[in-house]
């Protein structure tokens, strides 16, 4: 892959244009397009969480994983575990960042904290994250993990 930069003084200050040139639309091109699409939507904003007695602010950089059990959301951060109610889909939309990937119907992990992936039961896998946090990866999401790890 060859990466180049070209200055264009005619473009507005906040305008960036990306042109991908390839002989064909390969898997690598698709991955790059997906990454750039997520990157343009990515806004590293804090996540406000309402617990029973207070509002907390979670920095995405400190977030290891989010799990849902029915309507109970659990946020695993580097400092603590926070429980509230809500939908995983809402958090996933808010965490529109390529480093946050869904690994099952009930969990999103931060790939920056992924330490290992091991075989589990019935074709599932287990993601082991920093700070002794684990979650299962359902078979449907194994290809997503492999793609994100470059396997």
Short description:
This protein is an alpha+beta fold.
CATH topology of one domain, by name, is: OB fold (Dihydrolipoamide Acetyltransferase, E2P)
CATH class of one domain equals Mainly Beta
- Looking at the structure, what is the overall shape? globular
Low-confidence stretches: none
Helices and strands, in order, run as: HEEEEEHEEEEEH
Structural class computed from helices and strand pairing: alpha+beta
InterPro entries: LytR-like (IPR046947), LytTR_DNA-bd_dom (IPR007492)
Protein name: LytTR family transcriptional regulator
GO molecular function: DNA binding; phosphorelay response regulator activity
Would you kindly provide a written description of the structure presented here, covering whatever features stand out?
The structure is a single chain. It is built from 3 helices and 10 strands, in the order αβββββαβββββα. The chain has a 5-stranded antiparallel sheet with strand order 5-4-3-7-6. A 3-stranded antiparallel sheet has the order 8-9-10, with no helix packed on it. It has helices spanning 27-41, 88-94, 142-149; strands at residues 47-50, 55-58, 63-69, 72-77, 81-85, 100-104, 107-110, 114-119, 125-129, 133-137. The radius of gyration is 18 Å and the shape is globular. The protein has a domain at 47-149: OB fold (Dihydrolipoamide Acetyltransferase, E2P) (Beta Barrel). The chain is an alpha+beta fold and 151 residues long. 20% of the residues lie in helices and 34% in strands. β4 (72-77) and β5 (81-85) form a beta hairpin.
């Amino acid at each position: 892959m060859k990466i180049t930069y070209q200055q264009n003084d005619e473009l507005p200050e906040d305008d960036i244009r990306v042109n991908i040139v390839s002989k064909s639309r390969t898997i690598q091109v698709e991955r790059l397009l997906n990454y750039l699409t997520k990157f343009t939507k990515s806004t590293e904003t804090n996540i406000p969480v309402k617990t029973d007695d207070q509002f907390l602010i979670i920095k995405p950089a400190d977030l290891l994983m989010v799990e849902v059990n029915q309507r109970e959301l659990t946020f695993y951060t580097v400092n603590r575990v926070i429980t509230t109610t809500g939908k995983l889909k809402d958090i996933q939309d808010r965490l529109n960042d390529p480093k946050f990937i869904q690994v099952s119907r009930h969990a999103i992990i931060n790939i920056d904290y992924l330490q290992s992936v091991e075989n589990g039961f019935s074709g599932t896998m287990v993601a082991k994250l920093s700070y002794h946090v684990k979650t299962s990866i359902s078979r449907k999401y194994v290809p997503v993990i492999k793609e994100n790890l470059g396997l």
